[in-house]
Design a protein that fits this description.
alpha+beta; Serine Threonine Protein Phosphatase 5, Tetratricopeptide repeat; 2 domains; three-stranded antiparallel β-sheet; two-stranded antiparallel ribbon
């Protein structure tokens, strides 16, 4: 079939029309790349955009937050939108699995559980560079040590501000003894001096008021290996009246000390 053209009109070229630059851009945006990962498989990379401070729009490829690779046995599904991580250094945690480790403090083997990892990286927003290096018991002990250090610091600050307060001196003695019992460190001579100063400040008060000074001095003596002095002070503490839950707790502890000190 022939085509007629008016004079001066150029014949139209037959065939497919070339897509416009806009159509090409749309096709490029629709294309999905994949990032190969040894654990999570072929991670889809999708186009996202963000508005910069100057109002311009910056488009880039990012990990698909809705990607859901198959879960290994015992794994916990991750929520990418809840994670905070450097995309230049890490990939999202699409799932978590138990990770074995060796505690840097006690040297024992432990497992960094998948559920705990999810809590770290999604609830607490820890960075992926943060990993468990201590077992649960040593982590708990470390938190307790930091708490005791804080208590000791506050007790010393109060004693410095109120040097004639028996309660402040007893708080210093208690904090030092508890820190020594927990960590094996701490100046018992300082605790002993604080307990004795509290007793001097309580001179003339009812005997029950000075009972706690006896308890903390007795604890110092016991921890320093002076069994005879410790036994006499604990016995004097036990023989006095003790009111309230706090008094009952210290009384039970004193009796426990006496039972151990009486063993051959």
């Amino acid at each position: 079939m022939s085509h007629r053209h008016d004079a001066g009109e150029k014949p139209r070229r037959q065939g497919k029309r070339r897509p416009s630059s806009r159509q090409e851009a749309q096709a490029e945006r629709a294309r999905v790349d994949f990032y190969p990962h040894s654990v999570f498989g072929q991670i889809p990379m999708i186009e996202v955009s963000t508005v910069l401070a100057d109002g311009s729009v910056h488009a880039f490829r990012d990990y698909d937050p809705d990607y859901a690779p198959p879960l290994p046995k015992g794994a916990v599904r991750g929520s990418v939108r809840s994670q905070s991580f450097c995309r230049m250094c890490h990939v999202p945690r699409y799932f978590y699995v138990d990770l074995p480790g060796t505690c840097v403090q006690c040297g024992g083997a432990f497992v960094f559980r998948a559920a705990e990892q999810k809590h770290w990286y999604e609830s607490l927003k820890f960075h992926f560079d943060s990993v468990a290096v201590r077992c649960v018991d040593c982590r708990r002990k470390r938190r307790s040590e930091r708490s005791l250090q804080q208590e000791l610091s506050e007790a010393k600050a109060r004693a410095a501000k109120e040097p004639d307060s028996a309660a402040a001196q007893l708080a210093v003695a208690e904090a030092l003894v508890r820190y020594r019992q927990r960590t094996g460190q701490g100046r018992l001579d300082e605790a002993l001096a604080a307990a004795r100063k509290a007793r001097r400040l309580l001179k003339g008060h009812p005997a029950s008021d000075g009972a706690r000074a006896d308890f903390w001095e007795a604890s110092c003596q016991a921890l320093m290996g002076r069994s005879t002095l410790a036994r006499a002070l604990f016995q004097r503490f036990v023989e006095r009246s003790h009111a309230g839950k706090r008094g009952a707790t210290l009384l039970a502890e004193a009796r426990g000390w006496l039972a151990n000190l009486d063993r051959p």
